[in-house]
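Job type: complex structure
Entries:
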Amino acid sequence: MSSVPHDHVAGHGHDDAHIHHPSGIMRWVMTTNHKDIGTLYLWFSFTMFMVGGVMALTIRSELFEPGLQIVEPEFFNSMTSLHGLIMIFGAIMPAAVGFANWMIPMLIGAPDMAFARMNNWSFWLLPPAAILLILSLFVPGGGPAAGWTMYPPLSVEMGMGMDLTIFAVHIMGASSIMGSINIITTILNLRAPGMTLMKMPLFCWAWLITAYLLIAVMPVLAGAVTMLLTDRHFGTSFFNAAGGGDPVLFQHVFWFFGHPEVYILILPAFGIISEVIPVFSRKPLFGYASMVYALAAIAILSFLVWAHHMFTTGLPTAGLLFYMYVTMLIAVPTGVKVFNWVATMWRGSITFEAPMLFALGFLFLFTLGGFTGLVLAIVPVDIQLQDTYYVVAHFHYVMVAGSLFAFFSGTYYWIPKWTGTMYDERIAKIHFWSSLIAFNVAFFPMHFLGLAGMPRRIPDYSQQFTDWNMVSTIGAFWFGLSQLIFLYAVLKCIAHKGAKAPAKPWEGANTLEWTLPSPAPYHTFEIPPVIK
Amino acid sequence: MVRNTSGDATLRRSLISGLAALGATSGTAFADTAWNFQQPVSPIAQQQFDLHLYIFWICVVIFIGVFGVMFYSLFKHRKSVGHQAAQFHENTTVEVVWTIIPFLILMVMAFPATKTILAMKDTSAPGMTIKVTGYQWKWNYDYMEQGFGFYSNLSTPLAQIENRAPKGENYLLEVDNPMVVPVDTKVRVLLTAGDVIHAWWVPAFGVKQDAIPGFVRDSWFTAEKVGIYRGQCAELCGKEHGFMPVVVEVKSKDDYAKWADEQKKKVAAAADDPHKVWGGPDLVARGEKVFNDNCAACHQATGTGNAAAKIPALVADAVVLGPSVAQIDTVLNGRNGMPSWKQLSDTDIAAAITYTRNSWGNKAAEAVVQPAQVLAERK
């Protein structure tokens, strides 16, 4: 563990960027620097975002009109399965860890992450896992085609692509657990003197709670897929009724992981939004303490609601009622967060730079996704909507317009600090409006499809669903292409094509990272700042 | 498929106006497009329909309230209009209020939902029970109480799926043998599966229940309108998951009775051809099993009956040794305490009778009774 060095000469830290690390490719393979590792995570995430995006567009192409045109049904099913797995484990989670790596040490005045070498290993486990996932498409039997949820007995029937997926999940789980241990240790031990827990930027709180969630549930997922593996190959019957098991047991175990997982995907996004909104409102975050309590409440409740994914499995009446009530209860702390964000803007002095635009887009659309979540929590309504496009619409509102928009917001917010160059505001605004409109064109019609009865995970559909599917496909391509604008905006910063960023480009910002020069030196806060 | 009527016209209008941005597609192109739940035809589906709109409108009101405030703030509290930022950052009263009020709203939502859940889960006192089994990729409907059942397969031609022929009206939502139920009857469905998990879903009835291999789950519906209702498998079950529709035909009670009768006749006809002429030893062999399964409980495997219970011995019995017509009549229609056995097939009855005429020392003059003779005696 790299403790805070007390013996360094002041000023030395700003100058040694070119001395202590290898150059070229080995810089990235060997790095133990939180900024380098953050960069690796973010680029890995963007790459997977593109791969998962191509899969999404394959799905949308097939669904453009009724009939089978582009892909075979089995391949279509592997596309939906891998799209889910890659976006969740390859795009959103690594992006959140990338932000954590870059920002947590700088936000709390620490020199680096607590376990610098483990940090390197956490990242470098991910590429092999991603390769396994993608490779699964090319092995006998094809890719995993049982959905990202991998329900047995269907997943037991799959070819060896499912085994590769199981191993990929194991590896990504190990990576997440190590990353989480690192984040928890860093936050609990390496805060600058004077920075009490309740003075931490909310992004750190969000990640602290997320990291505990990860440590709690990743082993559960590993257990579930290991049971799947032994059912597939070693004659066990965990999920086989003929051998005394129960297929529904898998669903209980999976969703005990799966529901906290959705908060793992969204809490870091909450953290970013909680940083951005006060800065561009030029006003302190409203209800800091209640924001922390709300995060904790959401995290605790997330362990008690898993069976709301299983309302059609035939739960007992008491189970239906319990899981419905607790699920509805999550609306209370989530509501508190939304109200606090709105109250933060109230009587502020608001400007609309790209980070703020994405934060507002997040707030508006995530809340919409929250409402459809509430609709889905109502058991009798969920009976109609479960496994339809309404659910697909719901989770894309919270995952894409929620998490992804928050990450765009965070990228534009911090990229001046990362690269030393201001992003191009005009291009970023085009990216925002294009993404916002395209997103809604792609996903809003899915609500209607679900209500009207279109099941998810089907490669072909009856004709009354045609119009909305066409609209959705157009929106999806538009949304996908819009992300090339983002890539361009980021590359421009990296190439230093743009205005030089000052140390503090945002008038309303007052967290520690803005006390450092832009770009942030390779080593920062070797002497901890003192917080009054 | 039944779609919107007046019930959701308001919703539809509001959604259309909200989507005016989608100018790419003209209004008329959407004339046949679905927007909301299918028109419900069962009490539970109706409750689900109403509950959804109830929750929907509450959400719309909250949404407008919260984002009304936000957009007001975005408009009035901009830096570009010279607004100076206030510096307040907490207010315990406000925070307590906006924690408690959502909680109360949730209670208002939960109350009607709870009532519907209790109704949904009450599968007691059904008028009939049908066992539904999901297979990759078809459904089996077993009318257990009535002794018949059949498979239900997609009937859309492959040419339509592969775009070699124009698609029909019920493309992917049509089957060879639909499930048939009587109107206004509480139908309990027992669900299971033969391979992987499927889900049986008929939107108009408000029923979606997973069919889980190795376990039996139940659900119920009462269809209140004659018609054909279409749904689909709702749980990913492999490559043909999108191609195993659920079609239920609701018939009037009379039409249903006629249909059920035909099914029973078909089953009986399929089981054994009553016009087949059997050899004596074959009939005796089959008859021994039929007798031991159905008759021996009273008449004893030895044919000696039970004098204490007034059950006559068949050994050296006059009816058994006499003309076959009287014995066939006894078995078909019962006699004194003996019940009718007409639910057995003609072949089984002929076999059992032939067995009694050639066993335990019986040597009837008319030793072999053919199924055709039993058929002739049925009314």
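Summary: Residues 1-17 of chain A have pLDDT under 50 and may be disordered. Chain A touches chain B through 103 residues (CB under 8 Å).
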